[in-house]
Amino acid sequence: MHDVKFSLANKQVAGLSNGQTNKPLIIALHGWLDNACSFVPLAKYLNDYHLIALDFAGHGLSSHRSPDAHYHQIDFVHDLHELVVNQGFESFILLGHSMGGIVGSMYASCFPERVSHYITIESFGPLTKSAQSSPIQMRESIESRLKLQAREAKHPQSFDAVVKARAKAGDLSLEAAELLVNRNIYELDGELRFRTDRRLRTLSSLRVTDEQAEHFMRNITSPTLAIMGTKGYEMMREKIKQRLSWIPNLTHKSSEGGHHVHMDNPETIAEIMLHYLEQHPASR
């Protein structure tokens, strides 16, 4: 995997590519506070595909949003489509983990003609809240932003401490955590700094409702594979039970592992993906 960069109108989106440009394209989207290295363990099993793993804005080596902006999922969908249009990617496999799976579900719904297959790991459509919760959700979001503005940024004290904290918080192995942290930390004047934009930790201003989520997912027409870890987030397993009927062309698989099952058990996940893609050729 080597570094790549894509210039959009107002930012640069970075990523990693395996360079197999003459093979079918997979665009991979990582989870919240992760980065493109999330897909490095999986990459060595996907040599029959052109894999591009992106850093979302504010993550990894991608640009941060402007100082007066914030982070909304709709903007990640926008960034992806701007990149796809700029690069002339007509049809591709869309792979997402966690937040990347949520963004992927919205993209596959809004631009179904671009997505030949949609593969989601430890994620199954948008997170939701009731319409009645909207006022308090917005209030808490604004308050969280103002609190963040008033605080000085905290810097990491040691690389090892950050790796251990990331492994604990994400329930992933130290090796996987180190991969992610390596891309999210840099040194400035002899001191460590986080690359990740700290505004990503503020609360979302709004969430879609269950009704909106259902309409997003029912509009996904591509063959869809959902992979859940046996020790992943219980919320994700419950979501897929509730929403199984929302995607007409769905295959559901489980694999031993936690929320970052694609990092801690990459060979098995690759086997599931490759078998699925072989058995479900694109309809167009």
Automatic annotation (TrEMBL):
Residues of the AB hydrolase-1 domain: 24-266
Keywords carried by this UniProt record: Hydrolase
Position of the signal peptide: none
Presence of keyword Hydrolase: yes
Listed name of the protein: Alpha/beta hydrolase
The keyword Glycosyltransferase appears for this protein: no
GO molecular function annotations of the record: hydrolase activity
Recorded superkingdom: Bacteria
